[in-house]
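Tokens in:
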């Protein structure tokens, strides 16, 4: 049982360090800068026609 603690404790500390480093990188690279933009972008209408519809119209002509 004690042998497993010698493996699990350093492993958990290493995992915490990796997670903290990934979180720090995401903060520094701007991953959390615009949290509301994508939510509003879904609701905005797209004025252009999809390419599939325009291709079908060209085939009909």
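Residues out:
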């Amino acid at each position: 049982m004690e042998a497993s603690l010698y493996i699990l404790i350093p492993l958990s500390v290493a995992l915490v360090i990796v997670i903290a480093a990934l979180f720090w990188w995401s903060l520094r690279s701007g991953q959390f800068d615009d949290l509301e933009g994508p939510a509003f972008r879904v609701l905005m209408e797209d004025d252009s026609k999809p390419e599939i519809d325009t291709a079908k119209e060209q085939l009909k002509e």
